[in-house]
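User: Just a sanity check before I run the rest of the batch. Below are the structure tokens for the first item. I only need the designed sequence back.
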């Protein structure tokens, strides 16, 4: 009788360990998938930038520094080797693209060019997709990080290699721009 009770208790504990472990694995996989979604969107963005630069180059030949800044920022984003480095590089690329579009405002023929308009629309669509993918990733990371810190999962997390993940955050300079309401003048 005592042996049966001990066997049942061990079975319940074993089942709990398996359930907690499987949940942590599923949450970790969700963060990997969410990161993969961001990576795909960023790759599309990186592929679009050279076409945009070439289109602008045809109209704004004396804006060499702006074009070089966009190209340099794109390459830094491609070469980034950490989440923090990638976030910083992507924020630099966003700033460089914003500067490129500001230059484009000075060229009416460029603003009317169908190829430029198409690329601009495609980039805006990609920016929206990237923002959505970032939100999904950060949500998945928050859920995963919370799960590995909660009891009883915290007991299993470290021994089985479940480590906290970093969020994909906007840089402080970008955060100030995003949080500030645009000024409207008539």
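Assistant: Here's the designed sequence for the first item:
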């Amino acid at each position: 009788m005592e042996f049966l009770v001990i066997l049942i208790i061990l079975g319940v504990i074993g089942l709990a360990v398996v359930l907690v472990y499987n949940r942590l694995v599923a949450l970790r996989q969700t963060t990997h998938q969410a990161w993969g979604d961001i990576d795909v969107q960023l790759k599309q963005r990186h592929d679009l930038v050279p076409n945009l630069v070439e289109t602008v180059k045809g109209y704004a030949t004396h804006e060499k520094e702006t074009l070089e800044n966009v190209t340099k920022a794109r390459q830094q984003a491609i070469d980034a080797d950490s989440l923090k480095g990638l976030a910083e590089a992507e924020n630099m690329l966003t700033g460089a693209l914003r500067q490129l579009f500001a230059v484009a405002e000075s060229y009416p023929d460029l603003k009317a060019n169908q190829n430029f308009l198409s690329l601009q629309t495609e980039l805006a669509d990609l920016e929206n997709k990237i923002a959505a993918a970032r939100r999904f990733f950060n949500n998945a990371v928050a859920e995963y990080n919370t799960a590995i810190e909660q009891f009883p999962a915290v007991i299993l997390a470290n021994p089985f290699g479940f480590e906290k993940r970093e969020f994909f955050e906007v840089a402080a300079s970008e955060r100030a721009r995003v949080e500030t309401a645009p000024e409207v003048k008539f």
